[in-house]
Each structure stands twice: as structure tokens, then as C-alpha cells.
Amino acid sequence: MSWSFGTPILERAADPRAARSAVLVVLLAVLALVFPLAAPSFAINDDSQDTSGTSPLSRVGSVGLAGSDLVESSSATGGLGTLALASDVDRSDSVHGMLELQAISPMVVRPDDSVTVQVKITNTSKSTIKDASVSLELLTHRFTSRTGIAQWAVQGEQTSLPVTLVKKQEIADPIKAGESVTARIKFDASDLRLIGGVDGWGPRGISVKLGGEQKKKVNANLDVVRSYLLWYSAPADTEPSLNLATTALLTGPAVDPLEHASARATYLAATASDSRLQHVLSAVSGSKHVSLALDPALISGVSISATTPILEEDVPEVTSTPTAPAPGEDAVGPTGAGTEEPAVGATPTIPTGDSPATDPTPTLTPTAEADQFVPSFEQVQSEQWLSAFRSAAKGRELFALPSYDADWTTYSNSGTRVPEFRAREYKVLDGLDLSGSLAWPTSQSMSTRTVETALDSDRPWVIAEGDSAQPTTTLSYTPDAAYTVETKTGESRVLVSEPTLVSLIEDPGTNNPISARQRFIAELAMIARERPSDLRNIVIAMDRSWNPDPEVAKAQFGAIPALPWVTTTDIAAIAAGDAESTQTYTLPAVSMGLQALEPSVFNKLRSDLRKIEDLAGVVADPDALTSPFRSATRAATSVAWISDVTAHDRAVVNLESATQAALDGISVVTGSDINMISTGSEIPVTVQNDLNQDVTIQVRLRPNDVRLQAKDSPTLTIPSGGSESVRVPVTAVGSGNVVVAVEIRDAEGTYAATAGEFNVRVRADWENVGTGVVAALLALLLGGGIWRTVKRGRSERRTNPDDTAAAIAMVEAEAEGGPAADTDLRLTHPRYVADAHSAAKAQSPQSPTETSEKE
Q1: What is the C-alpha radius of gyration for the chain, rounded to an integer number of angstroms?
Q2: For FRET with 320, which of 51, 128, 417, 449 sits at 20 to 30 Å CA-CA?
């Protein structure tokens, strides 16, 4: 017969088979009381060494009120007594809330120790308790399984298991309603007569009962509280059988880095005095053996939010100095929070400066009151948290998670590597030794592909939470935490977190530090007792949602180094060791849970980011332009967004709008289409700069047709908010309509962006055709003149040599003033004589014969 975890035996009687089992348990318990050596075989073994008829424990006398075992009483309104805890929280784990376990000392009991059990009694009833007493009882048999330990804690007022009275203490004074007293029960461990040696040690069940008289009725079971006594009888030189590594996460809520005011408020709230992150830090601060895996963007964002003024206007507070991605790697990996959604038609804001989570060394924005910066109450609390973090981080193992605690499913399903951690990007982490070797996917993200992606991202160690790795066989003991997974690119070490130990820390079922501590170390002792001769590695990895009671967690973590069967170690030692689990596990091929981003959306964001990085080459401070988009793209993959889909969608839309606004920051001012009718010309281009930095660019025209060619790329500098015009020489080698894109390149000629495009109607042959037409017309006119002259022959009025000679003679005569001056030489000139003769002849009558011949 075995006990089911967390199910009280007495509650199983509802089922017929359970009822029969309960009866059997009762019979076995009776037999065990009659025959102490006849131990039941289901969960406990006989532990008594006393072979006499009467156990020494049953003869232990009671102690009166005057003894040193009782501390002064106090009323409910007057305090808890001198040994009461400072907290006002009710830490009672008893059945009726009257008993609070305050101390079991020493925590690990050895044979020669003197033991003290301290309880506080509070009368929560409405009547006085007279003749009160507290009794310490010990479970006669020792536990033989982890389920037996779990079962003991949930027993009710009565238990059917065999117990032995260790000591009874009577309280003489009545305990009035609402009054409290504190009592100590002291005894020597040797009086317990427990089995010693290497084989005898282990956890033992104990219970403290309150008895007394109320309303003239005596009740020996007014209340009962149960816990565990850790009996350790092994020799001092016994080697520990467990290597225990404990680790916790420091991850924050989802933020939209482009919304500075919202991100700041989120970071301040996340590190307030009563926040989850404050509880986590308080729980682990005093336990240097607890490793921390932190989100560097969280620490950076808190630092900036806590140390920069809160302005009325949301302006960038810092100047970024992150390292640019390596060649072939974009901001979210190598190649291969909710805010109001932007209104439709609104002009997106181009992010300036840096997001509140990239550069942890803020530069205050110059303001009139910058020198009088007074932090708010929330900022003071966050600064205190940062100070506590710096103190807690020193001297312990630290791991850096991907920025914003990236969702591994998003990266693995997209076939993308997770960005490498670069400590120099986060100055707030200076002086801390952080490793980037650990991947910590959620339980829903765990898969073979995730392990491969982690290894490809230079993170060969993977934490497997809870039930994310399913064992292939059932073992009777707790296997080693480390096992090797073969991937296509090599071997990865998966460290399986022990789920029961994690649950005892994350949800101990009590706010009493002593009860939680004893339950926790009893579980560890039982794990060691399973195979005491084999050294095994155990990993305890807290979940992302862990919100501890700091006092409870401190008690649990603080107990670990003092356990003689445990050696505290770190994650790196187990991951790099040679130990291999005897258990094999099954991982799904791909992650089946929710993911932060669908592959198509994620790939688009990565593509947009690469465009921003190309554009940054034209500004004086490229990081100031790219870092907000790099942070926002990484933040979009955060695990924290998975639980808030609506706000996540708004953040993605905000990022896409801001990206487009930045890409449109350098544009071409276009007018009507351009007509080009010559083979060579200059096209005027006006470039507008809407970025918040001056740009130095080369303007290159990129026609979509070879009929227009542009070889020169003039360089110009455009101030922020200004525009400049430039004339770009082009050559036309044909005719047609050509679309010309205006490429913006940096000063070295590297492509940065496409600023716009315009149309050019190229008519390069119009000039040649026009010239040809004019030439043809001229030739035609010349030819026509020549043809007319040839066809008509010489004209009678055309000048001949005789006319020329006569004219010359006349001029000479006139010049000399001789007779020729008064004589009309034309009358004696042969031409005029002939003309006169012809005219006379024409005027004379013609004969009929002449007329006929003429006709």
C-alpha cells in the first residue's frame, strides 16, 4: 500500500476501497502500539530502540508554570510576549489556529543535542482555557518515502499513526479569550532512543497538542500542529550525497520602450517596496548560494526610471551608447506595454534618444530645474531596490537572460538566433560577472527545437521547468538533474528542476518560517535517503511568477548550507560536470504553447529594424536613432506579453508606426512629371530631412529603365527639419517613360534608404529629329532655288560684262567732271540701243503675215 501525495488518509474513507484501506491502517496502528517492533511497510519504519516494556519517553514528567520553559503571557492587545515574532501576520499552522510553531532548535538534531521546541498559544475561542497543557509527540516510525512525508503534514486532529509522548507541559494560569502565552518544551535527543548510525538518520514526524478545560469540559485535543524533527546520526565524516544548486529569476513586467512615460511607471511599480521583485530580492539577498538569472533590460530600465527627472512632457531622458550588432546580425539576432493605439491618420512620433532599458547610465535632459532634481517617492523606492540588488549580486553566480526575457518559442519557430548578451551595453551591470550561457524557456516553450536554438545562440545550458521534460520511465528515487540532449549542431546540457522542492518554496502552504523550513529540509533529507551512497545533482529553479513571503523563503534558503547531507553548488558546476541522469526524458519536437509573436510578424519587425540600421548611417549619432527601435523589437518578444495579447498588439502597432515614420524621415519633395527631350541634362531633386539629427547624404538616382542613366551622386548636408536641392546629371539613351527612385546613401556610398520616386518622360530623339527637320527644310529650299534657276535659264535683266563696263565708264566720267557728266551714257550703250529698237518695233503696225507667224 502507498500513500497518495497530499491526500489525508482519513479523507479517503469516502471511497469503499479507501474506507477499507483506512480500516487497515487503523488495525496496523493498533498492532504497532501493541507490538512496537512490527513496523508497517507502507511509509514509515520502526524507529524505537527501547526493548523494555515501557518507553522512557512515556515517563517524562510535566513541567509547571514556574519552570523556565514558559515565557511571560500577553494579552491579544498587549503584544505577543518576549519571544514572539515581530510580524503581526498569523503564522499558525494548527488545525484550529491556536498553536504557532516558533522554534525547533537545533534545526538538525544529533544524538548528543538538547532540543527545544517553542510554541505560542493563542486562545482564539470565546471562553477561558483552564488547566492548559502542551504535549510533544513523536511519530514512532520513520518515513521511508517522500509521499509519507507529505501525508504527515495533512493529518487532522487525530491520527491513526502510532505516536509516543515525548514531554507534556502544564500551564497553571488560565488562558483568557484573546490572550497568548509562549511555551518551550526542552528535552535531550538521547531520550528519544532513535536508531543511530548511517542507516538511522532521517526526518521524523512530531506534533504539539494543546489540551485543557473549557466550559467545564476537558479536551486533550483543543488543537494540534505537526512538523518534522531532522534526526542526523551519521558520523561527522560522512560525505554528502546531494549537490544542490538553487536559482531564481529577476524578470519584470512587459513594457513598450517607445512609450517612455508608460515604461517608467511600469518599472517604478515593479520595484516598489511591496512588489514581487522586492520580495524576490529580499528572499535571496542573504543566501549567496542562490544563483540569479536576470533580465539586463529590467535592471537598466529601473536605473533610468529611478534616476531621471519625471517631466511633464514625455521627452527622451538619455543618450544611448549601445554596441552595434556584429556583421550579419540584426538587433534581434543574426540573419539566417500596452499604450493607447495610435489614432488613425495621426502622425507617428519618431523616437529620439533611447528607450528606458538600453543604456543604464542616464544623461539627464537639460531643464531649468535639472540641478534641483528631487526624486519622487516611487523613484526613491526603486533606487533602494537597485541598491539592494547591487549588494545582493556581489559574490554570487549570475546569468544574463536575453533582453526583456525573450520568448524562446518566437525565436525557435522563426529559425532565428537569440541576440548575444553584451555586458558593455549595460553600464549599470559594470563590475558584475554575468554569464550568457544559460537559456531559461518557459515550461510551454520547452522543445527539441528550443534546445537547438539555445545551442545555436551560444547558450548550451538549458533550464527545464516543472513538467516540461517528461520522464520516460518511473523510478523509485529522484534522478540526477543533468542530462544531455543531442541536437543537429552538438550537445546541450538540460538541467531538470525538481518540482516538489520548487513547490515547497513557491507555495509552502504556510506563512510560518519554521514550519516551512522543517517541511523543506525533511523533503531534502528524504531525497538523500533514497540513495545515500550515490552522489546526485539536484536543481531548484523558481518560476517567473514566484512571489515569495520573504521571511519564509529566507528560512528555507538559509537552512540549506547547514544540512550535512547537502553540498551547495552552482548551476555552472552541474552543467559542466560529467554526471548524467539515469532518467531519460521526452521533449516535444516543437513548442506547443503560446508564443509572443507569430513568425510572420516577427520577421517583418526584424526586416524593418534592418532598414532603420541602414538609415542610421547618414546621421552623426547612429545609436541614438537605432537603439529605441532595437529595444522595442526585442521587447516585443518578451514572455511577459503572452498574458496580455491586447496590449501587446497595441505595442506592435506603435512600433510599426514609429518605424515607418523614421523611414519616411528623409523624403523627396516631388512636383509634376519631368520631360526630358535631350540626351544630356540635369534633374533637380529637393530632399527634406524630418529626422531629429542633421544628415550627410549622397543622392543617387536609380531609374528603372536603361534608357535613362545617372552616374554622379552629389553629396549634401541637410539640417534637421530642413531641405536642400541638388541637380543630378543624367544621360538619356532612348525614349520612354521612366520611374526614377531617389536613393539616399551615406558619405561612403553605402545604401541607406529610398527617399521617394518620380516619373521622367524621356524623349532623347526629339532633338535629333528637330535638327534633321530643319536641315531638311533648308536643303529643300536651296534645291528649289537651284532648280528654278536652271529651268528658266538666264534672265534678260541679269547683269553682264558689258553693262558692268559701261557703268564703270559712266562713274569715272562723272567723277572727272567731263562731258560724260552731262551725257546720259545709257543712250549710247548697246543694250539701251537694242531696247529702244525693240520698243519702236513693237509700236509699229504689224503685217498679217507676221501676226500669223507669231500666233
Answers
A1: 50
A2: 417
Q: Please answer whether residues 659 and 608 qualify as being in contact, where contact means their C-beta atoms are separated by less than 8 angstroms.
A: yes
Distance separating alpha carbons of residues 464 and 454, to the nearest angstrom: 12
22-31: long-range contacts at Cβ-Cβ below 8 A with a sequence spacing of 24 or more? 22/160, 25/160, 25/161, 26/160, 29/160, 29/161, 29/162
* Rounded distance between C-alpha atoms, residue 362 and residue 354, angstroms: 10
pLDDT digits (tens, 9 = 90+) for 439-463: 999 999 999 999 999 999 999 999 9
Decide: 218 and 504 in contact? Cβ < 8 Å. Answer: no
Cα–Cα distance, 231 to 195 (Å, whole number): 9
- Written as one letter, the residue type at 566 is V
The residue assigned the cell 519616411 is: 664
CA distances to 285, 286, 358 from 382, rounded to whole Å, are 16, 20, 17
In single-letter form, the type of residue at position 141 comes to H
Determine the Cα–Cα distance for residues 435 and 247; give it in Å rounded to an integer.
Answer: 14
CA angle 651, 655, 408 (to 5 degrees): 70
**Single-letter code of the amino acid located at 4:** S
Pairwise CA distance, residues 105 & 126, whole Å: 33
Rounded Cα distance, 130 and 844, in Å: 184
What pLDDT is attached to residue 94? 87
- Three-state DSSP state, 2: coil
What pLDDT, in 10s, does the model give residues 531-546? 998 999 999 999 999 9
Q: Is 245 left (phi over 0), alpha (psi -120 to 50) or beta?
A: beta
User: Residue 742 and residue 600: Cα distance in Å, rounded?
Assistant: 29
Q: Is the dihedral of CA 650, 651, 656, 661 positive or negative?
A: positive
Assess contact for 751 and 616: CB atoms under 8 A.
no
Tell me whether strands 482-487 and 490-496 are parallel, antiparallel or unpaired: antiparallel
Separation of CA 472 from chain center? 32
Q: Is the pLDDT of residue 638 over 90?
A: yes
435: Cα within 13 Å, side-chain hemisphere: 20
What phi and psi, each to the nearest 5 degrees, are found at residue 776? Answer: -65, -40
Task: Please give the sequence-ordered ranges of beta strands (E in DSSP) within 469-626, or none if there are none.
Answer: 470-471, 482-487, 490-496, 536-541, 566-568, 585-586
Q: Mind spelling out the 3-state secondary structure of 818-846?
A: CHHHCCCHHHCCHHHHHHHHHHHHHHCCC
- What SS3 class is residue 305? helix
Reading the block at residue 246, the C-alpha cell is 538553487
